[in-house]
Design a protein that fits this description.
The chain is 23% helix and 23% strand. Strand 9 and strand 10 form a beta hairpin.
Length: 779
């Protein structure tokens, strides 16, 4: 379709009354539902999805719809087929339809310059070619991914008008019409055109001319009370283990990702698409689903809003979406008129959503054709083989080219892959005799190791990075979505959305380019420094982000302001009663570590004021005690590290229970992941935990790591991706040495290790004076 499309009669279909909690399954799809139910139940549990809702559509009927998990964990409210989610980029399909309605009415021309409708739209461009709506809807406009205002990291909820106006500060990244460049900002421009031409706010116009006519009664482009009441509670997560509640932030690019909806409502949407046209004419819809700006005969690409794919011999259409704690996949086979919607309340879980959708389409196609249902592949953890695979893999003879080189990382019997050319960290699992990716983000890619050579981790100690980069390393942006800049393998890296890792290429001083295939392909990351050479801001594409200055980042001991005075907490804790325990515990046998090996170094922070509470918690009699088996295992670690020139420095070992009680009562709730719950007791209280780091035996110098001891921040997590290669290498060396002797690292603290037998010992509150007096009984 080019230019103006003649106004054609619209077709309206009645929407059936559907059940509140679930629909179907219809008789034809009963076995499909049983198979999918097993798959989804497993995926929800395995991938930690708080809630998931799905709907299957066969032509004009929703044949099955159901919810899994909890929409509201606080109220124990289950997810249903009518739970509300944020649809993310699935919103783009509706914006494209809103544009095409106006094209049909002769009020818009797809191939006219956008400035015909927005005269003040003037992004900075070195190209003479104008930007058109056809280019925008197929992501060929050349506009940057995000606008300077109203972008994914902007929590100020600016208007669409203000967001689009801010693009006048941005440069066009590539020549319009020449290459695919995904742009949320571009679709926002299309939504603004609809606003101006229609004469009403985009959200209101979309409701009146699309959602209401489609029977999508629980949908909208703005969070009305009716929608937010049933909105699923969502979770943001990180590669390194931290999770938190997703904030409900309205994006300035609402037409690109602002839709609130349900699986059932998107099922109504699929019904309309299968009708051949409900809010647009059949000819218009057909034109929207053809790839744009591709060579003749090309079957895949971007249509007008729709992603167009050749899938298992069929044409498949749809779109995925991720936004602030939510992931959605809408997929359908137009030839068979079969479709599926999968919505989850965990962000960047698109791999799960797409996997479920793929399986659903295969099963439905077989059921429709009266054929046996195809088997559903089920993966399993790598298990004991994980350590054998761990290390750096590179193609033999490849040299320094990062393409095809990847790290396999073992964690507690599970295996994770991180490509050196950039991309997400994903789990690798076993499927029969093969290794495949099976992760929240991706599913199905085979991992072939033939022709590769492996360097076992942690490998050789990497060199120090260029000194000029050190001032750039750190976190930028807000607490919920920090952008983490680090150094790895002699290159600067960036971690976006706590999920996507990319190496950067330096253009000029403090300006770096994103690699091809990245979320910000074709754009740059530029830093601004203070007089001391430390970066204070970065600009990622068009997005300005201030540096997050973290306590403890400058090398000083991290401290908090106690919720109550420490002396008051001490008095209460000394009078408190330890939790009662049942069990057949071993008799305590606490041993002074330095009595086993005098070369252990001690820096018992809680016996001094140099700790997070800024006051001594132990008396001068404090020593590093552990239960004998744990102490002997730690001594073996200490001796083995000597062959590499390192030793262990102990920050804390056995800790009396009343001190754990003080920590808990002093610490704000949101930071309590870093202190133990006294009602359960700490593993330190049992004499089976130790806080420690490495020191250089030749110089006596404490080794620098990614964060300081007892730093209550993301930097403390054992897999936090920031810092430098040498600092992370030392962190990994310590971890591997400890794990080899039966210790495991605590999920939120790289320095905290628990001995494997900690459950076999009781909680203790023995004072150090008493232990010291009895030291004659302990060798």
């Amino acid at each position: 379709m080019r230019g103006r499309v003649a106004l054609l009669a619209l077709v309206f279909l009645p929407s059936p009354v559907l059940g509140q909690a679930a629909v179907g399954p219809t008789k034809r799809y009963e076995e499909v539902a049983r198979v999918l139910d097993r798959l989804v139940t497993r995926e929800v549990a395995d991938k930690g999805l708080p809630a998931l809702s799905l709907a299957l559509v066969d032509d004009q009927e929703v044949v099955w719809a159901k919810g899994y998990g909890l929409a509201d964990p606080a109220r124990k409210a289950p997810a249903t087929a009518e739970t509300v989610y944020r649809a993310g980029s699935v919103s783009k399909l509706f914006t494209a339809l809103a544009v095409m309605q106006l094209v049909e009415q002769g009020r818009l021309d797809l191939d006219a310059p956008v400035t015909k409708y927005l005269p003040d739209f003037k992004p900075i461009s070195k190209y003479d070619k104008p930007i058109t709506l056809r280019m925008i809807l197929s992501h060929r406009s050349g506009l940057p991914r995000e606008a300077p205002v109203g972008h994914y990291f902007d929590d100020s909820s600016p208007s669409l008008e203000k967001t689009v106006r801010s693009l006048n500060q941005a440069e066009v990244v590539c020549e319009p019409g020449t290459r695919m460049k995904y742009s949320n900002a571009g679709v926002a421009v299309a939504g603004r055109v609809v606003e101006v031409v229609a004469g009403q706010r985009f959200a209101r116009h979309a409701h009146n001319r699309l959602l209401d006519l489609l029977g999508m009664k629980k949908s909208g482009f703005e969070p009305s009370p009716e929608l937010t009441r049933d909105l699923a509670h969502a979770v943001l997560w990180t590669d390194y283990g931290r999770e938190h509640d997703a904030p409900v932030v309205e994006l300035g690019t609402g037409p690109a990702g602002g839709l609130y909806t349900t699986a059932l409502d998107l099922g109504h949407f699929l019904r309309a698409l299968f009708s051949g046209g409900k809010v647009v004419a059949p000819e218009t819809l057909a034109a929207m689903t053809e790839p744009q700006f591709v060579a003749a005969g090309e079957k895949g690409g971007r249509g007008l809003g729709f992603v167009v794919e050749e899938w298992e011999g069929r044409k498949r259409l749809g779109h995925g979406g991720n936004v602030h704690g939510y992931s959605t996949q809408l997929s359908f086979l137009p030839g068979e008129r079969l479709g599926v919607v999968v919505m989850t309340s965990r962000d960047f879980a698109g791999g799960v959503a797409r996997h479920v959708a793929d399986v659903a389409l295969r099963l439905m196609a077989a059921a429709r054709a009266g054929k046996p249902l195809p088997p559903v592949e089920e993966t399993s953890p790598v298990g004991d083989y994980a350590r054998r695979y761990a290390g750096r893999w590179e193609i033999i003879g490849k040299g320094s080219d990062p393409v095809g080189v990847f790290d396999l990382i073992e964690r507690d019997g599970r295996l994770w892959r991180l490509p050196l050319a950039g991309g997400p960290r994903v789990e690798v699992r076993r499927l029969g005799k093969e290794l495949v990716v099976d992760d929240r983000r991706l599913f199905g890619e085979k991992i072939v190791l033939d022709g590769f050579m492996r360097e076992p981790e942690p490998g050789k100690k990497p060199p120090e990075p260029p000194a000029k980069w050190l001032g750039l390393l750190g976190e930028y942006g807000g607490e919920h979505l920090p952008v983490i800049v680090s150094e790895k393998d002699g290159r600067l890296w960036v971690c976006l959305f706590s999920a996507a890792h990319y190496p950067l290429k330096e253009h000029v001083d403090d300006v770096f380019a994103f690699p091809d295939g990245s979320l910000f392909e074709g754009e740059t990351m530029a830093f601004a420094r203070d007089k001391a050479g430390r970066a204070t801001r970065l600009t990622m594409g068009t997005i300005p982000l201030e540096r997050r200055f973290l306590d403890g980042e400058d090398g000083r001991t991290f401290k908090i302001k106690p919720l109550r005075p420490v002396d008051e907490l001490r008095r209460e804790a000394l009078k408190a009663t330890m939790p009662a325990e049942k069990g057949d515990f071993r008799k305590p046998d606490l041993v002074d570590l330095t009595a086993l090996d005098a070369t252990f170094r001690l820096d018992l922070r809680y016996a001094t004021a140099n700790n997070f509470l800024d006051t001594p918690l132990y008396t001068a009699a404090a020593k590093a005690y552990m239960q004998r088996p744990a102490a002997e295992a730690l001594t073996r670690v200490h001796k083995k590290l000597a062959s590499r020139g390192y030793g262990l420095l102990i920050y804390d070992a056995y800790r009396p229970w009343h001190v754990t009680k003080m920590f808990w009562e002093a610490t704000p709730e949101k930071q309590r992941v870093f202190v133990a719950d006294p009602s359960k007791g700490s593993r330190h209280n049992r004499g089976c935990a130790v806080d420690l780091t490495l020191y250089d035996r030749a110089t006596g110098k404490v080794i620098d790591t990614v964060s300081g001891y007892d730093e209550f921040s993301d930097r403390a997590y054992p897999d936090y991706p920031g810092g430098t290669s040498p600092r992370r290498w030392h962190r990994e060396l310590l971890r591997r040495a400890m794990e080899a002797e039966g210790f495991s690292v605590y999920e939120a603290e790289w320095w905290h290790f628990d001995y494997k037998d900690w459950r076999k010992y009781p909680i203790l509150d023995e004072r150090f004076e008493k232990l010291d007096a009895a030291r004659g009984t302990h060798p």
